[in-house]
Amino acid sequence: MPFPDAGGAGPATHTRHDVVPTGRAADDQVTVWLNPAHGALLMHVIRTGLVTPVWCTSWRQDATTLIGPLIGFPPLPYVDLPRPQITTSHPNGFWKRDHVDTWLGDAPAIWIDDDFTGLDHEWARERTTRGQTTALVQPDPRVGLLAEHVVEVLAWAALLPVARADASGNSCDTKAARSL
What we know:
Layout: E1 15-19, E2 30-34, H1 36-48, E3 52-53, H2 61-71, H3 97-104, E4 109-112, H4 118-129, E5 134-137, H5 147-158, E6 164-165, E7 171-172, E8 178-179
Parallel strand pairs: 3-8, 4-5, 4-8
Antiparallel strand pairs: 1-2, 6-7
């Protein structure tokens, strides 16, 4: 969801939606700008089975109940992030990073967000060095997600080892990629 411009408008490709997040009164709506084409584009990625999509947003469960339906998403899991008491999103890198790191465990991940810092890119390199393949995709916050970002996600996921069953039917060499 890109930020609006100085005049309060979103990109021409996006549609304005006013939603009421959990805990807000009906007359205290929040405006979001969503590209209606993103739903189909991202559903294509989901249908490949190469990644398991997960919301990782300050919208928390509202992402799956308010935002997802507006672009045609089914309910998706989400990282239940805390409500940080910070005045900037970068006190020591991206405030979500440590929570995501814990949530991911050893799973490989590709994370799409427009708010990464150099510390977050270093975190991704360190995870990858430890064998937890991690990539960050950072759209421009004034433009939002582009098809080239989705191509990057698919190319990254296609390079991961795939799960295969051994003779007993047990899965081995598995790496479940998570797309945040």
